[in-house]
Design brief:
single chain; elongated; alpha+beta; four-stranded antiparallel sheet; Adenine-n6-DNA-methyltransferase TaqI, Chain A, domain 2; 12 helices; 434 residues
C-alpha cells in the first residue's frame, strides 16, 4: 500500500492509520468557572506547540475543568499533542517527554495516546514530516481556517514498523535533529549579534561621525549621548519639510479608475522591514489624478524620506521617483542642509527613541506633534556624504553575513525535514547510519 510519503516500505512493515496506533481525543473549549468547572488547572494550547516538534511551556494559561473532565483530558509523558486549527499552526505535533501532572488541553489540541506496540516519538516525527510535505494542508478541512479535526487525524495513513524499529528510528532522529537544531540555534544567535552590530554601527556613524579624534559635546538626544562639537542638533522641521499621506474616498468609484500614480501603503512596508533597502520599490497600489486632487494626499518628489507611523512603526526608506503615500506615513522632504540618505540612516539610528514614543494599546502610532518634535544631528553636507558611503559599505558587509546565515538555516531545515521523512518511511537503515 502506498501512502502520502512512501511508495514502498521495508519488509516487515505494515500500514494502517493513526487510529490503529493511538487514541485521538479533542480538548475542551476555554471556559470560565461559571460554566460548571470546579478545578482550575494549566492547559495545553496551540501556542505551546512549536513548528520543530518542541513544547514551549513558559507561558502557561489556566482554566476550569470538572473533576471527571480533567481525568479524561489529562496529559502524561508519552502522549503526542497535535494542533487542530489556526492560520499557521494547524497540524503541528509535539511529543510529551515529561510528566505534566494535572494538565488539561484546550480544544485547539488533539491528544494522541499511543496504544501498546507504538512509540509516540515515532508518531510525532511522522506527523512532522507529513506537515512539511504539504499533505496536512491539502488534507485538512478548509472553511475560513484550516482544521485538522480529530476524525481526519485518526484516518491519516501511517507506516507501522515493529516497535523495536520505531524506537530505533526515534532514537536516531532525536540525536540527529538535536544536532541540527543546535547548529540552527547557533546561526540564529549569530544573526542576532550581527543585527545588533549593524545597529551599533549605524548609531555610531550617524551620531558621532567617522573621526574618532573629533571634539565632542553633549547631544541632548535620546539615542546618542554626544555629537561632534561642530555639528548642529536641530528640530527636524528646520532642515526638512513634513508631509502626511492620505487615502482617497473609497465611496467615490471615479477616484479609483485610471490609476497611474504610485501610492505607498502599509501593503508595501515589507520592503523596509529588514532595513536593507534604501529606495522604495514598486507599490502594490496606484491612485488616480482625481483621487489625488480630492484628498489630502500629495504627490511628493523623488528623494522624499518616508517613515511608517502606524501598525508597523519606524520603518524608513526613500522615494526613487514622485509618489504619494497613505496616511500611515510621515514624509520628509529634505532641505538644502540635509541629504535624504543621511536622514534615512538617522531614522534607523533613532529606532530605540521611535519605539519609546509609540502610543496606543492595540494599534501603536507616532502622532504628528511627536514626529514634528524630532531633533536630529546635522553634520556638514560633506560629512553626511562620507557617513552615507561608509554605512552603505559597512551594512552591506554585515547584510551579506546575515544572508549567508539565513541560507544556512534554510538548508539545515531542509536537511532536517528530508532526514525525518527518510527515517520514518524506512528509506534509510538507522542502525547502519548510527
Amino acid at each position: 500500500m502506498t501512502g502520502p510519503l512512501w511508495e514502498t516500505l521495508p519488509e516487515g512493515w505494515r500500514t494502517g492509520q493513526i487510529k490503529h496506533a493511538a487514541t485521538v481525543t479533542l480538548g475542551k473549549m476555554l471556559q470560565s468557572k461559571n460554566s460548571g468547572g470546579d478545578e482550575r488547572a494549566p492547559y495545553m494550547r496551540a501556542a505551546n506547540v512549536q513548528p520543530n516538534g518542541a513544547l514551549a511551556l513558559q507561558d502557561v494559561k489556566e482554566m476550569w475543568f470538572g473533576e471527571t473532565e480533567l481525568e479524561q483530558l489529562s496529559i502524561r509523558a508519552g502522549d503526542v499533542v497535535v494542533v487542530e486549527g489556526g492560520q499557521g499552526g494547524f497540524g503541528r505535533a509535539a511529543y510529551v517527554a515529561d510528566e505534566l501532572s494535572g494538565w488539561g488541553f484546550q480544544n485547539s489540541i488533539n491528544r494522541l495516546r499511543p496504544i501498546d506496540g507504538f512509540d509516540g516519538r515515532f508518531i510525532t516525527f511522522y506527523l512532522i514530516a507529513l506537515r512539511a510535505s504539504g499533505f496536512v494542508r491539502a488534507y485538512s478541512n478548509v472553511v475560513s481556517m484550516p482544521h485538522l479535526t480529530a476524525e481526519k487525524l485518526a484516518r491519516i495513513p501511517l507506516p507501522l514498523p515493529p516497535l523495536d524499529e520505531q524506537r530505533a528510528i526515534a532514537d536516531y532522529l532525536d540525536h540527529e535533529t538535536a544536532r541540527i537544531d543546535t547548529l540552527i540555534e547557533e546561526q540564529h544567535r549569530l544573526i542576532e549579534m550581527l543585527r545588533e552590530r549593524r545597529q551599533a554601527v549605524i548609531e555610531s556613524a550617524v551620531g558621532c561621525g567617522l573621526d574618532p579624534a573629533a571634539p565632542m559635546r553633549p547631544s541632548g538626544l535620546f539615542w546618542t549621548a554626544e555629537v561632534p562639537e561642530h555639528w548642529a542638533v536641530a528640530n527636524i522641521r528646520k532642515v526638512a519639510t513634513m508631509k502626511t499621506g492620505h487615502t482617497p474616498s473609497r465611496s467615490k468609484p471615479e477616484y479609483w479608475v485610471e490609476c497611474t500614480i504610485p501610492w505607498f501603503t502599509l501593503a508595501d512596508v515589507w520592503q523596509l522591514r529588514d532595513g536593507r533597502r534604501t529606495y522604495l520599490g514598486e507599490t502594490a497600489n496606484l491612485i488616480s489624478e482625481a483621487g489625488l486632487a480630492n484628498s489630502a494626499a500629495e504627490l511628493l518628489p523623488a528623494g522624499t524620506v518616508v517613515l511608517s507611523r502606524t501598525a508597523s512603526v519606524g520603518f524608513t526608506g526613500i522615494m526613487p521617483t514622485a509618489m504619494a503615500t497613505s496616511q500611515d506615513f510621515w514624509n520628509w522632504i529634505p532641505g538644502d542642509r540635509l541629504a535624504a540618505e543621511y536622514l534615512m540612516w538617522t531614522f534607523r539610528a533613532m529606532q530605540s527613541e521611535i519605539q519609546s514614543l509609540m502610543i496606543g494599546s492595540t494599534h501603536k502610532t507616532i502622532y504628528q506633534p511627536t514626529a514634528a518634535a524630532f531633533r536630529i544631528p546635522v553634520p556638514p553636507l560633506d560629512e553626511q556624504r562620507r557617513i552615507i558611503a561608509y554605512l552603505t559599505d559597512q551594512t552591506k558587509k554585515i547584510d551579506t553575513l546575515i544572508t549567508e546565515s539565513e541560507r544556512f538555516i534554510d538548508l539545515s531545515c531542509e536537511r532536517r525535514s528530508a532526514l525525518i521523512t527518510a527515517a520514518v518511511t524506512g528509506q534509510i537503515n538507522v542502525r547502519e547510519t548510527a
